[in-house]
């Protein structure tokens, strides 16, 4: 494990024990006390900026968000009510906001890819905020041996609390790209639940740029042996923004794998990024192979990072487990090397940051999305020059 601190502007911390929630998972919002900010799962979050999502004062408005789905032939897209039995199977809300979202949504979007169907084009889900408050639920389900790529694009302005479920049948392969490109005043809090079937493969790529406050909680559990999960994340935190990513991989069955890599860049006063990476290897999960890493690049003074990798192991019969966290400024040697070859300092900084994010952008595998994100990174860097 590696951990570095850049002066007073960045903080890294770690623990060998996975953080515990203040209340057990539940679909009932009444089972969760109103957070006061001293709980482990809320201690980094500025509650006053949640617009009432945490204490029950937020009320859905008609102008909340609009959801549009484009899907290739063979994919079933439905809008269902709260009583649909397929909802909630991938995971249970673990905090009050997720429970509030589950208790408050009226309709859910369900995308189903039939068994043995291999999509050659992605499913695209556009979630556009129209200035109001909304509670949402989405389910993406793949039948046995199906393969799909899903892009969920968040834009506009909204206060949104949501749950997103991914259910993978045996042998299925799913890649999900969730882009948070909100306007500056948006608030987005969501729990992502993935249930990975036997010998199935799940890849999540989370990209966070916009919003006043974004707090995402990706969670993975396994429904059978041989499952694999890859969790990748990229975030660029600007002045005054709070971006928080809290991961949990629950190795609850034997012989499964997981790998988590999140990278962030920060710039500007009061830019605050939080990364919590929890991996739990239960007694029954013999043969587990897992690793998690978080790296942060601080571009200016006044930014803060809280990076907390946690690893809890309840059995000694594992293939491997590890974690790492690092936070620091630009590598002066890299800048000197580029500038010594005639590259101006501003351009050298851009090249270093692009290289820092390159491996994660390449995980997306969709040229149009990759090009858009590279352009977004370039635009963010322009602001720091």
Task: Write the SSE topology.
Elements: E1 11-12, E2 65-70, E3 76-81, H1 96-104, E4 107-113, E5 123-142, E6 147-168, E7 173-180, E8 187-196, E9 201-208, E10 213-222, E11 228-237, E12 242-251, E13 257-266, E14 272-281, E15 289-298, E16 304-313, E17 320-328, H2 332-339, H3 345-361, H4 367-384
Parallel strand pairs: 1-16, 4-5, 5-6, 6-7, 6-8, 7-9, 8-10, 9-11, 10-12, 11-13, 12-14, 13-15, 14-16, 15-17
Antiparallel strand pairs: 2-5, 3-4
Structure report:
It is a single chain. This protein has 385 residues and is mainly beta. It contains 4 helices and 17 strands. It is globular and about 60 Å long. The N terminus is likely disordered.
Secondary structure tally: strands: 17
Summarize the biggest pleated sheet: 17 strands, mixed
Q: What proportion of the residues form beta strands (DSSP E)?
A: 35-45%
| Backbone CA Rg | 20 Å
- What is the molecular shape? globular
How many distinct folded domains? 2
Helix content: 10-25%
Give the rounded overall mean pLDDT: 90
Order of helices and strands: EEEHEEEEEEEEEEEEEEHHH
The N- to C-terminal Cα distance equals 32 Å
What's the gist of this structure?
It contains four helices and 17 strands. The chain is mostly beta strands. The protein is globular and about 60 Å long.
List keywords for this structure.
385 residues; mainly beta; 2 domains; 17-stranded mixed β-sheet; 17 strands
